[in-house]
């Protein structure tokens, strides 16, 4: 049987953590033959550590055959020791009256410390997914704080936007979501993201031609996907958690086990693709194989799409400029 791999999860006692850990431990993320050791990080305060102990009791009570070990941590320097995968979910939420600059600064502090800890103690091949918002910029900060690790191993979660877009297209066309291929989401995990179905196919037919409605694209589809998080908060009273955890599982599974030629969306550091400045953590269509992702290159960008990409890029550059002095 396979040697266990180490999976670190931060914010482990939060609501995404609660929807995520059981699925990792059951083998949904890395395969039904891959034992895992969970290294769980929570804030060093009694309430958070107590809640984490409760979650760990439930994990024990599932008696997952693949769960080869489990640890509770309050310090990233121990939580990330030798870790092969790191899911950075915990972040500082925007409190009442908190300015954007304060939010960026609070998260810069968290993700600088976590990036440094990964740099110091994680596996040299650690694959990092940042879920905690602002996800792209937090991933950028962690990457910049870990100069000895491969920059390309730091990624941000755009997969929830990708999955939301796929399900909207499935509903619009009346086709199964599994039939949709070649969907792309560009840019920031925020309402400015650009979900792009120009290349997408459904049962082999062009999605764009099938829908054939640019007004729907602009006035219904893009705002629905972009504001989905807010719609869920309005309906549920709390933010999306199960669907976010599901997207994290999808992202890591596809990265580790491959997409067999199909496109998925990942936030990854640009190497200059599509004119996105180097190192900007940007949502791109990618394929994954052998544990590596590859940006799908050479797609034509029309005027409407370029304007959408420029807008989400401008937002990301603004966030980057807001944290540069903190790195
Ligand atoms: P939550 O508030 O229920 O849980 C967050 C947990 O993280 C808490 O238990 C807290 O104690 C812990 N935490 C905070 N700072 C930490 C630190 N420095 N180290 C370790 N643990 C820390 O929040 P929830 O709903 O689980 O969401 C987590 C994050 O994910 C939020 O930032 C949210 O905005 C983001 N999110 C991102 C999505 C995406 O698509 N990228 C989708 C949905 C949520």
UniProtKB/TrEMBL annotation:
InterPro entries linked: L-lactate/malate_DH (IPR001557), Lactate/malate_DH_C (IPR022383), Lactate/malate_DH_N (IPR001236), Lactate_DH/Glyco_Ohase_4_C (IPR015955), Malate_DH_type2 (IPR010945), NAD(P)-bd_dom_sf (IPR036291)
Catalytic reactions on record: (S)-malate + NAD(+) = oxaloacetate + NADH + H(+)
Annotated Lactate/malate dehydrogenase N-terminal domain residues: 5-149
Positions of substrate binding: 94, 100, 133, 164
Superkingdom assignment: Bacteria
Gene Ontology molecular functions: L-malate dehydrogenase (NAD+) activity
Pfam family, one: Ldh_1_C
Active-site residues from the entry: 189 (proton acceptor)
Enzyme Commission number, as recorded: 1.1.1.37
Top-level class of the enzyme under EC nomenclature: oxidoreductase
Residues in Lactate/malate dehydrogenase C-terminal domain copies: 159-321
Keywords: NAD, Oxidoreductase, Tricarboxylic acid cycle
Binding-site positions, NAD(+): 11-17, 107, 114, 131-133
SUPFAM superfamilies: LDH C-terminal domain-like, NAD(P)-binding Rossmann-fold domains
Homology family: Belongs to the LDH/MDH superfamily. MDH type 2 family.
Function: Catalyzes the reversible oxidation of malate to oxaloacetate.
Family matches, as HAMAP family: Malate_dehydrog_2 (MF_01517)
Protein name: Malate dehydrogenase
Taxonomic lineage of the native organism: Bacteria, Pseudomonadati, Pseudomonadota, Betaproteobacteria, Burkholderiales
